């Protein structure tokens, strides 16, 4: 069993209130869960207006497939247009 995860930190454009931020973050979470069937949650910076941090995990029996899924998730977040990724930490268990 392979468990791969990552912590993605990003800046949120046009977030003038926590409500704006939560709208963007929840949209990313919902789209990512539906499209890639990964575990994803906001893990840090809950009260920071223009920053979001997501924890994402994939469980599989194939390391290469898991890495490809995580790469696709990163691409999906970057293509959002409302955020800019500024750091990615990868984890393997």
UniProtKB/TrEMBL annotation:
SUPFAM superfamilies: Hypothetical protein TT1725. Pfam families: DUF503. InterPro entries: DUF503, TT1725-like_sf. Gene3D superfamilies: TT1725-like (3.30.70.1120). This is YlxP-like protein.
């Amino acid at each position: 069993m392979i468990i791969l995860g990552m912590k993605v930190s990003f800046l949120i454009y046009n977030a003038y209130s926590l409500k704006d931020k939560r709208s963007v973050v929840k949209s990313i979470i919902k789209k990512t869960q539906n499209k890639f069937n990964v575990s994803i949650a906001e893990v840090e910076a809950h009260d920071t207006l223009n920053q979001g941090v997501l924890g994402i995990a994939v469980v599989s029996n194939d390391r290469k497939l898991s890495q490809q899924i995580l790469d696709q998730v990163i691409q999906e977040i970057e293509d959002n247009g409302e955020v800019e990724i500024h750091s990615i930490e990868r984890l393997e268990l």
